[in-house]
Write a structure and sequence with these properties.
Helices cover 59% and strands 10% of the residues. It is α/β, with parallel strands linked by helices.
Length: 294
């Protein structure tokens, strides 16, 4: 079975992926990222064809395969040979558009939301979480969060917890909206690069006290380390879709780490998040172990 997650919005990608993990209930999750590691099709085929003696379901998350090797006859032939392997679900995560094909059992669209769709998404999210918001407050929330669904979702959780079932007003949004987290994440990563993990955790705990969720922090850390990997490998910031200023800061930070260290840390971030989502570890413990293990 092959599932396609197609689009650039990482929040929608993550939500769809969480749903797939929940539905498939895999005994094992394997992660490949063609954008940051040298992975061959033979290596991928070998992993897919490894069978458990207990016939446990395996989920393979494969990022950027089609972007790196294209979607021609060789690729379709390769995927066709793997699509019917028992007890294995393959999830292809692609930023760019992929042509329709019978290979894909399910297709999730994860493109960034336009303004009208974003307004509806926020209103629906608030309602699904047991809240209600006035129009003016909704406008401020959109302005503060922009297109960053991670940030908006995080603020929604805080607003609903604060209002306890009452309607969210513009004064509530102005009171609770957090400053952007990116600068503090940069500082936390600086501490990690300097092997000062205690202060790195202190920086992150500040956000936990403000009401930011651990899943949000892990997502931001993950995005940041992927940027460090791309900067370290000499990737083109324009092709990578990274703002030049952010890329320059990442390039400076990347010098604290070897390429192998960055790849290992990024892999641990992904695995920590998967363990949290599958109930293998408590969130706070996962964050502590992740930072001290870097």
């Amino acid at each position: 079975m092959i599932i396609l997650l197609q689009g650039k919005d990482t929040y929608l990608q993550k939500r769809a992926l969480n749903q797939i993990i929940s539905d498939s209930r895999p005994a094992k999750v394997v992660f490949f990222d063609f954008g940051i590691e040298k992975i061959t099709l033979d290596l991928l085929r070998e992993e897919i064809r490894q069978k458990s003696i207990f016939k446990e379901k395996k989920l393979l998350i494969v990022i950027g395969l089609l972007e790196q090797i294209g979607f021609g006859k060789e690729t379709t032939s390769f995927l066709s040979s793997l699509s019917n392997i028992d007890e294995t679900v393959i999830v292809l995560v692609e930023n760019k558009a992929v042509p329709k094909h019978q290979l894909f059992s399910q297709v999730y669209k994860t493109e960034p939301l336009k303004l009208n769709s974003l307004k509806k998404w926020i209103a629906d999210e608030i309602q699904s979480r047991g809240g209600e918001i006035e129009e003016r407050a909704l406008q401020i929330l959109i302005y503060a969060g922009g297109e960053n669904l991670w940030a908006i979702s995080n603020e929604i959780d805080k607003l609903i917890a604060y209002k306890k079932g009452e309607k969210i007003l513009i004064d509530d949004v102005n009171l609770l909206i957090s400053p952007k987290i990116e600068d503090n994440i940069f500082q936390a990563i600086d501490f990690i690069g300097q092997r000062d993990k205690k202060n790195a955790l202190k920086m992150l705990y500040i956000h936990l006290k403000k009401g930011d969720s651990i899943s949000y922090l892990l997502a931001m850390i993950g995005f940041h380390f992927r940027t460090l990997i791309l900067a370290k490998s000499g990737a083109d910031p324009q092709k990578s879709g990274i703002h030049p200023f952010v890329f320059r800061k990442a390039l400076n930070q990347a010098r604290f780490f070897s390429q192998e260290e960055l790849n290992n840390i990024y892999r641990q971030i992904i695995l920590s998040d998967i363990k949290i989502k599958t109930g293998q570890i408590e969130e706070r413990i996962a964050l502590d172990l992740l930072i001290f293990g870097m």
